[in-house]
Specification:
Length: about 400
């Protein structure tokens, strides 16, 4: 595979992966304006975000079997068209109920892009390169939290919140064009793959029973949930506890995003010298140590805003290194049902992350303790799952000599 071809494929797959985060982040600054426009409250507008999260959770499990039955591109076409139609529909909504419903449909469509992209990484690239490719996807994915809210805020102020959804539809249409003309079909349809409920459940269960998938998918999802704790609690911690303005918080958010994204790119260099299994061991142990220090300092009130930023930055660096390696190791054992495995992996990450974000939002403490506590809990539990689960893995599948469906 030439470097130009490699770069193009990673760019397209990264764009597909970033579609759902862009759909979440870009319209957040418009909540008050949307509430006023639809004659409702900001709290009810936030239900459209909840509807999107529910759609993502459901959709990922839906597309896994479809991708393994019909190949990668046909279900992806359906999902992208569904996303475009729902996005255009959001432009014309006249009630909050319509917006919530269409956001749910929009999420179902976006899941095709997310699950297909993860499965196609496993299809297209050699196993030894999977962790490096996932790290590059994170680099593209990182554009969303750094740019989308700011861009969305300017668009809302200048042209109204409705235009955001037309822009999202246009982005999806551009991605659909790229998929049709530049992304190869990486998996031949399998007519023997049944879409009846019992065989689908059996397929999911066969993936779950694989000790390597279960160990790395669960420990990766639990570790990744520390990021959700930070996302849910950081506005309160920085703006309410430390009293910074929304503009300063935006800069802090961008700085911390650099830690997550930058470390994922450092991982690309690490995978050239070390196995993903080795990297996960060290990164998770580092995450445990950092989170315990952060929690101890928070409980004793030893940190000011700068110390808090440093501790979160260090924690997110560990997450940025852990995530691509656990994702690659989770999918490594699968070829025939990689779509189902990718769907389960995404569902675990979203379900556990959403649960953690809800839990952290329930605490009313005027400190960083709840956030630090959940970060520490996520890191410790993830590390324990890794240590226990590894005993059941005879020899981790990390690289092989097989020729992938598309190498040249």
């Amino acid at each position: 595979m030439t470097k130009q071809r490699y770069f193009l494929l990673v760019l397209i797959l990264g764009g597909l992966t970033a579609l759902a985060p862009f759909s979440i982040d870009m319209y957040l600054p418009g909540f008050p304006t949307i509430a006023k426009s639809l004659h409702t409250t900001t709290e009810k507008v936030s239900l459209s975000l909840s509807g999107f999260f529910i759609g993502i959770s459901v959709g990922q499990l839906l597309y896994g079997p479809l991708l393994d039955r019909f190949g990668r591109k046909n279900p992806l076409y359906v999902g992208m068209v569904l996303y475009i139609i729902a996005s255009v529909g959001c432009y014309f909504v006249s009630s909050i109920e319509m917006l919530i419903g269409l956001r749910f449909v929009q999420a179902i469509g976006s899941c095709a892009a997310t699950v297909a992209a993860m499965a196609m990484v496993r299809d297209i690239f050699p196993l030894k390169d999977n962790a490096r490719v996932f790290a590059l996807l994170i680099l593209i994915l990182g554009v969303s939290p750094m740019l989308a809210p700011t861009v969305g805020g300017y668009i809302t102020a200048a042209f109204g919140w409705q235009l955001i959804f037309l822009i999202l539809a246009s982005i999806a249409a551009l991605m659909l064009f790229a998929v049709i003309f530049f992304l190869p079909e990486s998996y031949r349809p399998d007519p023997t793959y049944s879409l009846k409920p019992v065989p689908i459940i059996t397929s999911f269960w066969s993936v779950m029973k694989n000790p390597q998938f279960f160990t790395y998918a669960i420990c990766g999802a639990v570790g990744f949930s520390g990021l959700f704790s930070y996302l849910a609690a950081s506005p309160f911690v920085f703006m309410d506890v430390y009293g910074v303005s929304s503009k300063v918080y935006g800069w802090i958010f961008a700085l911390l995003s650099v830690g997550f994204i930058g470390s994922s790119q450092l991982n690309s260099m690490l995978t050239r010298r070390f196995k993903s299994e080795q990297i996960v061991n060290v990164s998770l142990l580092s995450m445990v140590i950092i989170s315990i220090i952060f929690l101890t300092c928070s409980v004793n009130n030893w940190l000011n805003i700068y110390g808090t930023i440093v501790m979160i930055f260090a924690f997110l660096c560990c997450v940025g290194i852990t995530y691509p390696n656990t994702s690659a190791l989770s999918l490594a054992p699968f070829t025939k049902n990689a779509g189902t495995a990718a769907a389960l992996l995404g569902a675990f990450q979203m379900a556990i992350g959403t649960f953690v974000s809800i839990v952290v939002s329930m605490f009313k403490s005027r400190s960083a303790i709840p956030m630090a506590g959940l970060m520490a809990a996520a890191a410790i539990i993830a590390f324990l799952i890794l240590m226990i689960g590894k005993r059941a893995i005879p020899e981790p599948v990390e690289s092989d000599e097989e020729t992938n469906f598309l190498i040249h």
